[in-house]
């Protein structure tokens, strides 16, 4: 199988202390950070919504989504726009990261399965691990990280435990 | 002595203007006019109207007009649109 | 792919034709049917037959052909639209609908009751003699029903030749549809002098035609002829009106040469009075000019509408939204440059953009009547089934709301109407005993009210029986025996899953769907259901739906660093929050002109950061009869913009109904006023209950206690 040796391109980026990467094919564009509109009553990892040329796009804070402290907005903070969701409900989602590094080429044999522990990250978020400039890179399983289904269910009233009384009217 | 004009193969809206002018000039210059329709392979409403006009204008200007030897294309078109005036003009020519 | 598209449009077009057919049939039961309606009935089956043939749907072709024959006889006056015929046609309608549904679902076309309908059609076709209109039927019914005779008077416009069209082409095409029995050109308009323009058309054609076509098909032949053309097309039977009409156009010479032609054909006989009707006038020719005029009117109403794929409209609306924002940005720029001519031109542009937007958005709005129009049938069928005589009255059918909303309302409304007939309206004995007319009334009503669309389904039945509802709810374990419920709460119990007050389970309620589904559907549209009921007088279900359209007239408010949009229609007034007498704290309600106004503080409610400023403002919002004051930091004024959906990630949000993009490009969230008011009134009722200590907190399975209805 020669295809295994054909490198695929990944976009690498920084979030907190970690370097992550995702397949470049999922990335639509990279934007400088600009102020977002925060949405109340949503889990903390939903950083807000932004106007992407007329479409309102949710922006997820990758750090918080991965269970880490909230990102601090710095000069190099970026929003990576990705396409997420299943075929019929594909939508753009923004991902807030601390910095975007570069596009790297990885062959399949350079990608190793994630070690069972020590990642401090939900196992289903990890597609594999690799190395880049002597650094450890976590390849993200974007379908899971940006699963609209799961994220929406996390913001359901029960999960959020917000004033249950306001929702029992019609039950 | 009747002046003879043979109309070309195509008598459609593309030629109507020119043919009209040619026939108008002939009408002015000749008291007797014969128009040969035998070469006409294609005719449309515009072409037929020129013939209708010629027929009426000749009557008005007392020009003796003969429309002769209508080709099958002409006969078909007259039948298609029920152009009675042309039909009778041709019959008159046949009869003479 | 293309075939797939073609199939889709065939199915959609057929569905529309069937709907039209149904509404005509239901309409015509009471009133006499017009020629136009007869034509439309015939056309529906005829068109479906034709298109089905293209797709090789032979079953449908075979069936619709018979139905078409029946309609042809009806149209020609050989049959009369009585209850029997109407019934057969409705069954035919249902059958074709079922056939098409099977096609759409990719299933085998069901036989259904096809054979019995076909037998009924055959029976009706065989005995047309009994109908009083069949004066001239004897001769024409002997002919194949498909062929009909037509008279055509065609005055082509002067410009047709120059526009690349030749009357001869139309005639050739016409000849493919049937037989041209006679044709004559009238060229009296053709000048013999120099004014003759060889590229102008002077021909007028008179034609006698026979073919298996209808008026629309014939008109369609000439549809492409340019303006200035005038075509009069009539069935041969309407000779006199045809000739009269045909004579109206043209000068005396033209009229005379037409008369000559008709005389040659034996259609017209010269009389002392030149305007006298031809001798050949048929006695049944009692509708002068109707068919020609009808077919013209029909055509023009068809061409008044263009079908556009919804997605295209959405993209257009998005682009217009972008244009608005770009326009606002240009205006800001012009302002900062201080160039007044530039500023002026951006203002002019902004005005135009505004017009474009409001027109674009209005394209999404459709009258609710489209949905209402199915109900005469529902009422008729359900009434028949239950043996109840029901009169349906519809009002507000022209109330407009968003297309997507209209589509989603059909099911819940159907359910409520069925429910009203089944459970609401008593049977005749009970009605008589109560001194009511035998015939029950059901009302469907729609109107706009403070930014919402309200749809009412009302009946004049027995009303909801509170005791019976309570008993049933107890029995089903829906409430506990110590529950204290307001009137509204009791009514709401009928929306609980698995609740049915009917003593017997009728065929209709046996569909496994309860009113709880209605409730869910309406809630999914962010609407509410209210119930008014008066014992012995009837029940009204009132659906209140937000105008969740693509556009919103918004009122901007600020809380901390966030901007929110409140639908302007719901805003009653604004004021500064008066300082509390004690100095500190947040008053829970406000005395406003003698009324108590519950307050909802947006900052804590939405869990927003920051401390409230010294001055806070109250925006009084209202839906229905309920008013609430929203406490915000600052008021920014009115703003009109395009609603952007927030996407499924935010589907659980209760207080936010959508988002919008402000002039500076930032996103602002739109507050869901219905949800906020519900929350506030419940909160208020809860407090009230605690203070009065009469209304214990609601049990876990019981609806929330809502005291507002008793406070009205």
From TrEMBL, chain A:
GO terms for biological process: chemotaxis; signal transduction. Pfam families: CheW (PF01584). Residues 7-151 form the CheW-like domain. One of its GO terms (cellular component) is cytosol. InterPro entries: CheW (IPR039315), CheW-like_dom_sf (IPR036061), CheW-lke_dom (IPR002545). This is Purine-binding chemotaxis protein CheW. The lineage of its organism: Bacteria, Pseudomonadati, Pseudomonadota, Betaproteobacteria, Neisseriales.
Automatic annotation (TrEMBL), chain B:
Pfam families: STAS_2. Residues 16-43 form a coiled coil. PROSITE patterns: STAS (PS50801). Residues 1-96 form the STAS domain. CDD domains: STAS_anti-anti-sigma_factors (cd07043). Keywords: Coiled coil. This is Anti-anti-sigma factor. It comes from Aquitalea magnusonii.
From TrEMBL, chain C:
It comes from Aquitalea magnusonii. One of its GO terms (molecular function) is phosphorelay sensor kinase activity. The lineage of its organism: Bacteria, Pseudomonadati, Pseudomonadota, Betaproteobacteria, Neisseriales. The keyword Protein biosynthesis does not apply. It comes from the Bacteria. Involved in the transmission of sensory signals from the chemoreceptors to the flagellar motors. CheA is autophosphorylated; it can transfer its phosphate group to either CheB or CheY. PROSITE patterns: CHEW (PS50851), HIS_KIN (PS50109), HPT (PS50894). It catalyses: ATP + protein L-histidine = ADP + protein N-phospho-L-histidine. The modification Phosphohistidine is found at residue 46. Residues 1-103 form the HPt domain. Its EC number is 2.7.13.3. One of its GO terms (cellular component) is cytoplasm. This is Chemotaxis protein CheA. Keywords: ATP-binding, Chemotaxis, Kinase, Nucleotide-binding, Phosphoprotein, Transferase, Two-component regulatory system. Residues 349-549 form the Histidine kinase domain. GO terms for biological process: chemotaxis. Residues 551-682 form the CheW-like domain. Pfam families: CheW (PF01584), H-kinase_dim (PF02895), HATPase_c (PF02518), Hpt (PF01627).
């Amino acid at each position: 199988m020669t295809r295994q040796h054909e490198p695929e391109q990944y976009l690498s980026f920084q979030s907190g202390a970690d370097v992550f990467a995702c397949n470049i094919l999922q990335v639509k564009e990279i934007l400088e950070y600009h102020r977002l509109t925060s949405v109340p009553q949503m889990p903390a990892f939903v950083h807000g919504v932004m106007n992407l040329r007329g479409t309102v796009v949710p922006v997820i804070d990758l750090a918080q989504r991965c269970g880490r402290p909230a990102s601090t907005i710095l000069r190099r903070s970026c929003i990576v726009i990705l396409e997420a969701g299943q075929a019929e409900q594909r939508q753009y989602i923004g991902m807030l990261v601390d910095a975007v590094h570069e596009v790297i080429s990885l062959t399949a044999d350079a990608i190793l399965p994630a070690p069972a522990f020590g990642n401090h990250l939900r196992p289903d978020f990890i597609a594999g691990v690799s190395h880049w400039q002597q650094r450890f890179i976590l390849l993200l399983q974007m379908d899971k990280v940006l699963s609209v289904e799961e994220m929406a269910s996390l913001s359901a009233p029960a999960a959020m435990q917000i004033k249950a009384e306001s929702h029992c009217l019609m039950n | 002595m009747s002046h003879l004009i043979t109309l070309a193969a195509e008598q459609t809206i593309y030629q109507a203007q020119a043919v009209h002018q040619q026939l108008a000039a002939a009408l002015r210059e000749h008291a007797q006019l014969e128009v040969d329709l035998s070469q006409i392979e294609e005719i449309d409403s515009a072409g037929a109207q020129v013939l209708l006009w010629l027929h009426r204008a000749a009557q008005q200007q007392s020009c003796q007009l003969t429309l002769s030897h209508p080709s099958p294309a002409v006969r078909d078109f007259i039948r298609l649109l029920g152009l009675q005036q042309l039909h009778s003009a041709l019959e008159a020519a046949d009869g003479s | 792919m293309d075939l797939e598209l073609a199939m889709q449009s065939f199915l959609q077009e057929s569905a529309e034709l069937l709907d039209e057919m149904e509404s005509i049939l239901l309409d015509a039961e009471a009133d006499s049917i017009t020629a136009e309606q007869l034509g439309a009935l015939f056309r529906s089956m005829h068109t479906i037959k034709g298109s089905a043939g293209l797709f090789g749907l032979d079953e449908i072709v075979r069936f619709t052909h018979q139905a078409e024959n029946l309609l042809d006889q009806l149209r020609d006056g050989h049959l009369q639209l009585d209850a029997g015929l109407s019934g057969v046609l409705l069954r035919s309608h249902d059958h074709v609908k079922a056939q098409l549904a099977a096609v759409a679902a990719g299933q085998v076309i069901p036989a259904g009751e096809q054979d019995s309908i076909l037998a009924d059609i055959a029976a009706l076709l065989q005995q047309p003699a009994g109908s009083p209109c069949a004066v001239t039927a004897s001769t024409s019914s002997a002919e194949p029903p498909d062929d009909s005779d037509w008279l055509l008077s065609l005055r082509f416009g002067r410009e047709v030749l120059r526009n690349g069209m030749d009357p001869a082409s139309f005639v050739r095409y016409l000849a493919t549809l049937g037989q041209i029995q006679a044709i004559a050109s009238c060229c009296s308009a053709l000048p013999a002098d120099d004014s003759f323009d060889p590229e102008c058309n002077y021909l007028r054609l008179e034609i006698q035609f026979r073919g298996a076509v209808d008026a629309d098909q014939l008109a369609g032949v000439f549809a492409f002829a340019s303006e200035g053309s005038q075509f009069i097309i009539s069935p041969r039977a309407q000779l006199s009106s045809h000739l009269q009409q045909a004579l109206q156009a043209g000068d005396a010479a033209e009229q005379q040469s037409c008369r000559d032609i008709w005389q040659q054909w034996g259609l017209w006989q010269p009389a002392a009075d030149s305007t006298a009707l031809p001798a050949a006038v048929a006695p049944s020719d009692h509708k002068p000019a109707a068919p020609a005029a009808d077919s013209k009117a029909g055509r023009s109403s068809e061409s008044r509408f263009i079908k556009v794929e919804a997605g295209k409209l959405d993209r257009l609306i998005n682009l217009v939204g972008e244009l608005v924002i770009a326009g606002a940005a240009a205006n800001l720029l012009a302002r900062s440059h201080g160039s007044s001519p530039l500023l002026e031109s951006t203002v002019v542009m902004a005005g135009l953009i505004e017009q474009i937007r409001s027109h674009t958005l209005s394209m999404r709005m459709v009258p609710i009547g489209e949905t209402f129009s199915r109900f005469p049938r529902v009422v008729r069928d359900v009434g028949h089934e239950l043996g109840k005589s029901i009169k349906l009255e519809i009002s507000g059918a022209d109330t407009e709301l968003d297309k997507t909303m209209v589509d989603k309302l059909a099911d819940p409304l159907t359910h409520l109407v069925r429910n009203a007939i089944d459970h609401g309206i008593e049977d005749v004995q009970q009605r008589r005993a109560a001194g009511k007319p035998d015939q029950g009334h059901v009302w469907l009503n729609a109107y706009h009210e403070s930014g919402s669309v309200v749809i009412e389904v009302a009946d004049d039945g027995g009303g909801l029986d509170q005791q019976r509802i309570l008993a049933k709810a107890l029995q089903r374990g829906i409430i506990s025996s110590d529950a204290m419920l307001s009137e509204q709460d009791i009514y709401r119990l009928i929306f609980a899953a698995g609740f049915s007050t009917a003593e017997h389970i009728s065929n209709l309620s046996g569909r496994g769907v309860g009113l709880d589904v209605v409730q869910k559907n309406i809630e999914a549209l962010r609407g509410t259901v209210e119930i008014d009921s008066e014992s012995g007088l009837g029940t009204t279900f009132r659906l209140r739906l937000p105008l969740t359209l693509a556009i919103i007239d918004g009122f901007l408010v600020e809380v901390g660093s966030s901007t929110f949009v409140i639908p302007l229609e719901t805003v009653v007034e604004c004021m500064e929050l008066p300082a509390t007498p004690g100095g500190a704290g947040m008053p829970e309600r406000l005395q406003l002109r003698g009324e108590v106004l519950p307050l909802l503080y947006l900052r804590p409610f939405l869990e927003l950061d920051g401390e409230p400023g010294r001055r806070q403002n109250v925006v009084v919002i209202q839906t229905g009869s309920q008013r609430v004051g929203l406490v915000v930091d600052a008021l920014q004024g009115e703003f009109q913009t395009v609603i952007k959906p927030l996407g499924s990630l935010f589907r659980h949000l209760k207080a936010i109904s959508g988002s919008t993009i402000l002039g500076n490009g930032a996103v602002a969230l739109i507050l869901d006023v219905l949800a906020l008011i519900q929350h506030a009134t419940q909160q208020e009722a809860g407090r009230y209950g605690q203070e009065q200590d009469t209304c214990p907190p609601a049990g876990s399975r019981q609806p929330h206690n809502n005291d507002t209805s008793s406070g009205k």
